[in-house]
């Protein structure tokens, strides 16, 4: 019996073209990219080429793409790395008797994030970081008014996902980044770069005192991170258009291999005065700023792991070249087919929904009807247990999911549906169909017949 796979949000099969691109690096081209000999250089060239592909696709700079082992690791690096950098800066500036002496950093996340964000935030909370979880409405969209209210001067990071893995609901990322930018700009009490170079010590005459801490905290923060793991397959992920400082990507959701992810890390250097600007400012009293700002020369995050300093010192460990090459190939293929494929699966998904509604009138759609990924259909079948339905469909040859892959292993109701205001019965009675490249109309028709038999 041919299986009907409708769980592409959990994992996608390896595209044969990706497998071919990886093959030489699994066998003959085995060098370590840190080695100086020819074998090493060959691996380094493949790594550079892969980075260029991903970088071009998201509009990043070369050293802003950090390869990781997974999206989970990238999400951890975004959150933990930002907090670590702030702590580092705080230590460096402990002589600065500014108002940030007793600073308690705040992180804002949405209530519907993937576990790799929510659990990381909870862990940081146990270490003294304040975590605000912004609610979503019944459609699964982040409450922007509540979000605005959650921003305060201690906020160092906002992490809101681009598209949800359970419902496929797409957040208005550029609108959220606009709110963050406006908030940053409203912190006007701190001089900007130009003011500093022109100051000739004017700030001191005015009795204002500023250090690296004040400058950074006030101008560059909060940073904005988005988990674009599910969105990448179908939506444009240009970092400037989205207005994000950090962005997580995954290989295994775009027909690439498991074992590769990436974190985009915006280089903050341009946002804060550089050493030269500061020395030119004749602000002698702050001459130690040169030293303090050194920490910001590269990026906004500090590494979680220490070691060989790979990935621009942000992610130590020998790079998984075959997986990274595969990830880049998958990204390249995606960029050529994104729009066409979005339209194709969108039509099939709408067809499936129309047919389900016709045969089970009581069925309900979870999540905004328009603002969602084209391949996702998350539905509530009243009076049904999602687990039971999943198992029965599996026996009928159909693979679907109850909630996310991780949630499916537990009997807990989906935290995403609960956050949307649905009761436990609905959160436990909803299933997710996610279509993909191999999904055909014949498969959808077969599925509809199976559902009617139930
Ligand atoms: N973020 C989102 C939105 C996801 O859907 C997933 C996986 O399903 C992840 C992060 C974590 O990905 P991985 O398990 O590959 O690390």
TrEMBL record:
EC annotation from Swiss-Prot or TrEMBL: 2.8.1.7
Q: Which InterPro entries match?
A: Aminotrans_V_dom (IPR000192), Aminotrans_V_PyrdxlP_BS (IPR020578), Cysteine_dSase (IPR016454), PyrdxlP-dep_Trfase (IPR015424), PyrdxlP-dep_Trfase_major (IPR015421), PyrdxlP-dep_Trfase_small (IPR015422)
| Keyword field | Iron, Iron-sulfur, Metal-binding, Pyridoxal phosphate, Transferase
Cofactor names: pyridoxal 5'-phosphate
Catalysis: reaction(s): (sulfur carrier)-H + L-cysteine = (sulfur carrier)-SH + L-alanine
Q: Where is the Aminotransferase class V domain?
A: 4-182, 223-447
Superkingdom in the source lineage? Bacteria
Top EC class per UniProt? transferase
Q: Which GO terms describe its molecular function?
A: cysteine desulfurase activity; iron-sulfur cluster binding; metal ion binding
Q: Which family does it belong to?
A: Belongs to the class-V pyridoxal-phosphate-dependent aminotransferase family. NifS/IscS subfamily.
Protein name, entry field: cysteine desulfurase
* Annotated source species: Candidatus Doudnabacteria bacterium RIFCSPHIGHO2_01_FULL_49_9
């Amino acid at each position: 019996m041919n299986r009907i796979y409708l769980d592409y949000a959990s994992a996608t099969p390896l595209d044969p073209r990706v497998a071919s691109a990886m093959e030489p690096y699994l066998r003959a081209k085995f060098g370590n990219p840190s080695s100086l000999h020819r074998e090493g250089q060959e691996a380094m060239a493949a790594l550079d080429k892969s980075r260029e592909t991903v970088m071009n696709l998201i509009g990043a700079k070369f050293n802003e793409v950090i390869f990781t082992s997974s999206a989970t690791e990238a999400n951890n690096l975004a959150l933990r790395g930002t907090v670590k950098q702030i702590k580092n800066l705080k230590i460096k500036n402990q002589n600065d008797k500014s108002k940030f002496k007793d600073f308690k950093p705040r992180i804002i996340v949405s209530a519907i994030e993937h576990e790799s964000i929510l659990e990381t935030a909870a862990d940081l909370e146990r270490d003294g970081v304040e975590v605000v979880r912004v609610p979503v409405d019944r459609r699964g969209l982040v409450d922007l008014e509540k979000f605005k209210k959650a921003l305060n001067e201690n906020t160092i990071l906002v992490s809101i996902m681009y598209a949800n893995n359970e419902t496929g609901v797409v957040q208005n990322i550029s609108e959220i980044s606009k709110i963050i930018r406006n908030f940053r700009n409203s912190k006007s009490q701190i001089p900007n770069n130009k003011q500093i170079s022109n100051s000739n010590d004017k700030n001191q005459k005015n009795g204002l005192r500023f250090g690296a801490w004040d400058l950074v905290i006030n101008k560059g923060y909060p940073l904005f991170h988005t988990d674009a793991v599910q969105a990448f397959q179908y939506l444009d992920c240009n970092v400037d258009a989205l207005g994000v400082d950090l962005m997580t990507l995954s290989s295994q959701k775009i027909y690439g291999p498991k074992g590769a992810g990436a974190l985009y890390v915006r280089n903050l250097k341009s946002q804060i005065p550089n050493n030269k600007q500061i020395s030119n400012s004749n602000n002698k009293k702050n001459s130690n700023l040169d030293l303090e700002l050194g920490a910001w020369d590269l990026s906004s995050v500090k590494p979680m792991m220490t070691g060989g300093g790979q990935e621009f010192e942000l992610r130590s460990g020998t790079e998984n070249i075959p997986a990274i090459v595969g990830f880049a190939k998958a990204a390249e293929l995606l960029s050529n087919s994104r729009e066409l494929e979005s339209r194709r699966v969108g039509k099939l998904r709408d067809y499936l929904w129309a047919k389900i509604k016709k045969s089970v009138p009581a069925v309900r759609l979870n999540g905004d009807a328009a603002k969602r990924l084209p391949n996702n259909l998350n539905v509530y079948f009243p009076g049904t247990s999602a687990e039971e339905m999943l198992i029965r469909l599996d026996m009928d040859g159909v693979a679907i999911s109850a909630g996310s892959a991780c949630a499916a292993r537990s009997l807990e109701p989906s935290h995403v549906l609960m956050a949307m205001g649905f009761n436990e019965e609905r959160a436990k009675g909803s299933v997710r169909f996610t279509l993909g490249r191999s999904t055909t109309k014949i498969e959808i028709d077969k599925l509809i017949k199976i559902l009617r038999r139930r």
